[in-house]
Amino acid sequence: MTFRLSCLAKSFICCAVLICVNTAVFATVTAKVMEESEVFLLTPPDNGSGPLWSYGCTQIARLGEDVYISAMETDPDTPPLCNTKWRLLKHSPEGWKMISEDTAVRQREPCPLAVISPDRLAINVNDSLEPKGTKYGRCLPGIRLFHFSDAPHTMTHILPQWKDAPYFTDHSYRSFASDPVNHRLLMFNIDAKTSVEHACLLSADGETLATSSVSFPIRSCYAQTALHDFAAYMLAIGDIVEPVDAWREYKFEQTERQWDYVFRRLFYTWRPDIRTTPFADALEIDTVDDTAGYITNQDLWIDSDGTAWILYIRFEVQNALLRDKFFPDKSIDPSLILAQIDPNGTVHKEVLVPESPERGISQAKFQVSAKGHLYAVICLSGEEGGVNIMPLHAHAPDRNLIPVPLEHPLGSFCLATTRAGNAPSNWIDMFGTTGDNQFRYTSILLEEE
């Protein structure tokens, strides 16, 4: 792994004027590109994973002025699947410095981060229990908790106490959330035999406070989760082998590809108190089952009223191959949709970016400013291509796209999200890639007037 720093001049500025209808006051939002830097060059692990594979989680965190990234390093001498290890990097004026790393090569997937307090950072690990080269072998989920109030920092190991002895493997499909106000962590890992998502609520000292589980109508993965006090929330996408024989056979005939998982049904569930009440029956937010479509869950945010805000990308038909054969009158262009679900389960949907043959949508994440204003950070291709910011809060009368003039727009990225305990901030900290094996950091400063 190589670490390099190549910062751009801090002079790129984009600006939008928003009219607040109910107060007749003009609000100006300015986005300044503060930094674009190289973080590490990945040697592909060829294990079906990658640094952003657990896209419902985040690999980047901000504690005050300090920014951290959980990096993936591949060991060329270890055969897949568990042939990587985590490295914790800290931003510095000289570049990205490694401050800690795993003592063994035993991970298949990236290891997400969560902030549990202003001076404590948790990294979610999934240690292999099998000999090197084992595939789909047993793993032991855990937490490495870093204490930065100590000089130098210290690290403690936390092992959650799970209920019902679930069967965890190197395909964890984990999700990870934090409540930094109450200093609690929420972990989810999937049982590889039953597809049940098992939950564990932890205190800052590593005590298991509660356990639970979630069963969806079909196997569902890549979840975003949130934790507010003892209330837990989960958004997940169905992830199953193509169930329609005609479509599966035609795809194999044309591509000769055995792997054929489909992502067509989007589910949401919540629990007002993970200690005492079961998760609600899963609510199906959207489906493109009938048209061989494709959905990716992008992000989840819970407001002060308990309403869930959900971003997802929707394709009516997944690709031209299926459209031309089975659905010639349907669309293969993506749209970005915002769904809001109140505590009673009422769903309201809004199309933020409509489908267009001139535009692609690769990623969308929420950013909450220091004033509590909600934005979407969106990466488009084609028309309006690059990274854009869209105000979603009440003072923004229109869903305007504010382009951010980046030299290296990240088509795939994660943010220092509040779901992972990061404080609301005008700093947009992005970790991602432009599509190659170079992983980068982008820093954008929002100025609200």
What does this protein structure show overall?
- By secondary structure, the protein is mainly beta.
- It has a single domain (12-448), classed as Integrin alpha, N-terminal (Methylamine Dehydrogenase, Chain H).
- It has 2 helices and 31 strands.
- The two termini are 42 Å apart.
Q: Strand tally, please?
A: 31
At the fourth level of CATH, the homologous superfamily is Integrin alpha, N-terminal
In CATH's first tier, which class applies?
Mainly Beta
Give average pLDDT, whole number. 93
Summarize the structure.
4% of the residues lie in helices and 50% in strands. With 449 residues, it is mainly beta. A hairpin with a 2-residue loop joins strand 3 and strand 4.
Describe the secondary structure blueprint for this structure.
Blueprint: E1 12-20, E2 25-41, E3 60-63, E4 66-74, E5 84-92, E6 95-101, E7 113-117, E8 120-128, E9 139-147, E10 154-158, E11 175-179, E12 184-190, E13 197-203, E14 208-214, E15 220-228, E16 231-238, E17 240-241, H1 245-255, E18 261-262, E19 265-271, E20 283-287, E21 294-302, E22 308-315, H2 320-326, E23 334-341, E24 347-353, E25 359-368, E26 374-382, E27 386-391, E28 402-403, E29 412-415, E30 427-433, E31 438-448
Antiparallel strand pairs: 1-2, 2-31, 3-4, 4-5, 5-6, 7-8, 8-9, 9-10, 11-12, 12-13, 13-14, 15-16, 16-19, 17-18, 19-20, 21-22, 22-23, 23-24, 25-26, 26-27, 27-28, 29-30, 30-31
